[in-house]
Amino acid sequence: MANLTRNEAIELLSSPGSRLEVTTADIRGVDYQVPNADVKILHDLYASGAFNDDMTFLVYEDERYSYLDTYLKSANFAWRLQEQFGIKKGDSVAIASRNYPEWCLAFMAITSIGAIAVALNAWWNSDELKYGLQDSNARLVIADQERLERIRHLVPSLNIPVIAIRPVKSGSNEEPDISTLLNGDQTAAPDVEILPDDDAMIMYTSGSTGKPKGVVSSHRAIMTPLFAWAYIGLIDLFTLLPKEDLEPFKQWLFKETDSLPTIDPDLDTNQPPPQESSILTYPMFHISGVVVQFLFSMLLSRKLVLMYKWDPEKALELIEQEHITVFEGVPTLSWELINSPDFEKRDTSTLQTLGAGGAKRPVEQAKQIQNKFKKDGANAGYGLTETNGLGTGISGGDYAQRPASVGRPTAPLLEVEIRDEQNNALPPNQDGEICIKSCALFRGYWKQPQATAEVLRGGWLYTGDIGHLDEEGFLYITDRAKDIVIRGGENISCAEVEEALYEHPAVFEAAVFGLPDERLGEILGATVMLRHDQTVEEDELIKYVESRIAKFKVPAMIWLQHNQLPRLATGKIDKRRLKQEAASFIKT
Fold first, then answer.
1. In sequence order, which residues have a C-beta less than 8 Å from that of residue 221 and are 6 or more positions away?
2. CB proximity list for 160: less than 8 A, separation 6 or greater
3. DSSP SS3 for 4
4. Residue 512's beta-bridge partner residues?
5. CA dihedral sign, ordered 536, 542, 544, 549
6. How crowded is residue 207: how many other Cβ atoms within 10 Å of its Cβ?
7. Are 55 and 67 within 8 A, CB to CB?
8. Which among 450, 457, 363, 369 has a CA at the least distance from the CA of 417?
């Protein structure tokens, strides 16, 4: 008997009465396909995780937190936020910290009471953190020691109370230590009416303008990718198995049984399956850290192992020690992992998936990873902060055949169209702007209605990325319309870096652009025209910029000249030409 086609599998999985039923909802005047799941807001997800009792959720060095521990600590902190700090629904609460377990607990507590979690970039310097706190109207900031030192002098003028995460001197610091606020007698978070389309999170992203913009996402927008990704494995399963073997899975799908059948003949069905586990590689101020890794792990009852900082040898040790099954990160990380001298020495047999997101993986890297990993688990994808990480994905044989592609749209909860400048949908293999429609889309840019209207039109997100779909619906990204550089998964606004360069008295004109880099995907380069009576050394200018913006935004190379920078017919600086000249200079 024949197998289901991909479209038939999607139709079956999303049909009425299914656990993954899809319906239509009007969101801000636009009809979207939405998951009709019992879990509709973030607190529902946290509470459902608590039923896993003593199953491990978070691991950090020698600390282990069960799903139940995690929920109870976040619930007690939620009560403290309400009663001790006066935080109410709709208030913004900022988190500025590296990836500690407390980051996760704080996010859960904030969103459980209908407040808005503001994920501040932990790499930002003092001025950038000040901007984020002021722009988001933060009522409270939760910060670790390093971030605390950067903002402590700002607190009196900002009049924002601070809660400290792992302070070095917890007994003498003025700020309350979060560890004293996580424990208590509460067994559930406060009862607050939260609707699916209420705001839940602000995450800052750099675009074509100078200052980062706050991307505002609702509970529904954040939850949607979790269900959409749950479809992927089931679509593959339902298309691979003969129709006659699908009956037990259909019984689970339509709630006739609560047990999902296994297809592994060696697995003892009387024993619970081994717990999936993953390493948290993305920073939590990155959409992939919060949604792809943290929250999706909770939906899957997955163990999430946190690292103090990225180190490929330490990661391989954790893969062996914690029996890691899933590895995801920006392309740089999986590349460093498989090229580590310890890769052959460590037991990585439990590792089933080696994924990449946040930036485009170079084709040659993809081929070498597939050859060395020797499993079908290598994958890649494409998503944005504005889509809460949802977009396209590719893996297995598809990825081996199309290493330059970022995959198919994640149906049925996301659509992709390629459009020209007149807003016409383009046929296969024609480049245009990549446009996305999904209920996972952000609500808008915080306090920036004009910027929102420029990219959200008729329910579609105009991404600013250029690409095409092939005849089978696989997406290829070929360029970017927005003036940004993606360095190791971090969006960097060229305009913001140019502003920092222009502040130097010797700089008359500056152009910042991306250059290819084997490790990070892209690095920043800049060409600068100096004032005719001024001179400055490259190293001096780099240090100057470093004092004004976060280090990851500073150009790796700067070319200095006294001639005017080349122009386009429009009068704009010809960045494409400068980029080509810089790339050729590097090669020689």
1. 200, 388, 439, 440, 441, 442, 443
2. 133, 138, 139, 140, 141
3. coil
4. 526
5. positive
6. 23
7. yes
8. 457
- d(CA 94, CA 139) in angstroms, rounded, equals 8
- Average pLDDT value over all residues in the chain: 90
The C-alpha atoms of residue 164 and residue 240 are separated, in whole angstroms, by 51
527 three-class SS: strand
Cβ pair 142, 96 in contact under 8 A: yes
- pLDDT tens by residue, 251-278: 999 989 887 777 655 545 556 678 999 9
Token code pair at residue 9: 């599998």
The confidence score (pLDDT) of residue 210 equals: 63
- Do the Cβ atoms of 81 and 74 come closer than 8 Å? no
Q: Which residues pair with 138 in a beta bridge?
A: 92
pLDDT classification of 179: cutoffs 50, 70, 90: very high
Phi, psi values for residue 476, rounded to 5°: -125, 130
Rounded to 5 degrees, φ, ψ at 561 are -155, 165
8 A C-beta contact, residue 525 and residue 513: yes
Q: Is 424 helix (H, G, I), strand (E, B) or coil?
A: coil
Instruction: Name the H helices within 480-563.
Output: 494-502, 538-546
- pLDDT tens-digit readout, 137-152: 999 999 999 999 999 9
Q: What would the two tokens of residue 54 be?
A: 């003593």
